[in-house]
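Table 4 source record.
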Amino acid sequence: MDAASVLDQYVQDLANLPSEVAHILEEVRDKDLKFYETRKRIQQRDNQIHKFIRANGSLAENPKEQGAYPKIRQDFQAAMELQDEKCTLAAQALTLVAKHVKKLNDDIDKLDAEGLLGGAPPQKPISASRSRATSSATPVPEPRTYTRDRANSRRGGSPAASRSATPGSRPPKKRALDKEPSLSKESSVGAAEQLRNMPETVAVGSLDAAIRAGPGEDDEVLYCFCQQPSFGEMVACDNDDCQYEWFHYDCVGLTEPPSGVWFCSSCAKGRKGEKKKR
């Protein structure tokens, strides 16, 4: 067994994987449509009962009510079964993919043990993003934003926080990534309020970016209104006492590095309140 034959066999094994996963997802979609149809029937019958009560009062006997209840219970049972079937199908898709990943990792370990790879230890697919982060070179000074890879490469250092020299800009502050953000009751409530006011498309984009970024070594540190780990491009609040510190671009509606001093909406609101008191 050599690396070339392992790769060739792995490519052959993966040939049918996309179609198999697509077939499973199509079944999930069909069951999802049936689930929504079932839920719609439940809602319609429930609306009919409430409509009769509004028109005739709660004491009036509805001749159709007793016949509707068994049908509603039957639809509820069918909906639960559909949800269970969807979960089973999703688990099948996950098992298919995990099986191929495990086989590749096992083959790589065998090649490495036999000394057939040569050079540096091989990088497994599941740890590729982490290896890129830890092997990154010294970053060039840039606006006060940072990506997940650069943050992970410092492992306890501060994100790239240099600003271009602009009138009125303050010296960049250095904040350690291993500093645990405050998770007091007030900060949790504030984060929840910010997320409720956040556009749905922004919140979904932030979640998608987190999924694409994958797991990292510093994931236990939470930032931003969304209280998620570092991923993608982030910007720091210029308030030294900011309880969230760093923010994902999507969560604060940024598409490029801000110029000059930048405050998050929470700190900006607090600064306005202080000015009014003065």
